[in-house]
Amino acid sequence: MSILFKGRAQGAQISHVSGPQRFVMFFVSHIRQALGSLGELWRSRISALMTIGVLGLSITLPSTLYVMVKNAENISSGWQQASEISLFLKQNATQSDVNQLLKRIQLWPEIDKIHFIPADDALLEFKQLSGFGDAIAYLDKNPLPNVVLVIPTERHAGPTAARELLEKLRKEREVDIGKLDIEWLERLHALLKVAQELVTVIAILLFLAVVLIIGNTIRLNILNKKDEILVMKLVGATDAFIQRPFLYTGFWYGLLGGLLAWFAVILLLWWMSSSIAAVSELYQKNFNLTGIDGQTLLIMLGLSVFLGLSGSLLSVKRYVSEIEPK
């Protein structure tokens, strides 16, 4: 850099401009550059649409997988009951003992709710479902014990926490046998965890690809405007001033790509809703496919804008600073 432009990086100091005026000028300058970068995209709308399309479709895949994983939890209504613990009480436990047990465990913070099934009710249900009503009538006494169904809280519904709660309940003096389908519960959480990790890995890979694509697009824009950048630096423009239009270009890429991804997810869910309705009808269950709510949309748009800014920042920090008048 020559001695004539040695002080350009610090910018021009205007002593007669007040602080509020500088703030207004800075704000107006940002708006002009943001609108100018949007106009540049419109003038080269074919290439811009291609870049926005790549960004939007890259975000569509992980967003759709995330929505499907979230809906999978709603499809299986029995998932929350998979951690249900069955306590078979001792035959010699009196009604007073049972009431005391119910009062004690109801106060435990690990338990959400309990349901007591008396032995007589269990026997009556067994008669209706088994078809051995006449044979059971010849029994001298009820062979079935009292049963307490314990449903843990959501925090303690995992395999490890549910197993610990089962061992704790087994130590109660009124409890004879405690049962929990741990294997099914562990398989359930393992499948859900695999799905979540798969979404995360795919999202990271696609997001890195988006950053590289936008970075390369901004790099080409900078190289195409090399002569213009040289002239701007010769008349005293700072690097920050020159970089801002390219950063706003990345912002618009991210915002428009996020909106495209949102529209694509809605379209995919609408297209799949008929197939899901047919499957739910076969299982005689009513299921409404939930889409992207407001909070998820804001997160998706924010992430998309962040990717656009990150890709443009990688290019402008390197290539704009390399262009210097000799």
Automatic annotation (TrEMBL):
It is found in: Cell inner membrane. It is a multi-pass membrane protein. It comes from the Bacteria. The chain crosses the membrane at residues 198-218, 251-272, 292-316. Pfam families: FtsX (PF02687), FtsX_ECD (PF18075). Coiled coil: none annotated. Residues 201-320 form the ABC3 transporter permease C-terminal domain. Keywords: Cell cycle, Cell division, Cell inner membrane, Cell membrane, Membrane, Transmembrane, Transmembrane helix. Residues 84-171 form the FtsX extracellular domain. Gene3D superfamilies: 3.30.70.3040. One of its GO terms (cellular component) is cell division site. GO terms for biological process: cell division. InterPro entries: ABC3_permease_C (IPR003838), FtsX (IPR004513), FtsX_ECD (IPR040690), FtsX_proteobact-type (IPR047590). Part of the ABC transporter FtsEX involved in cellular division. Forms a membrane-associated complex with FtsE. Belongs to the ABC-4 integral membrane protein family. FtsX subfamily. This is Cell division protein FtsX.
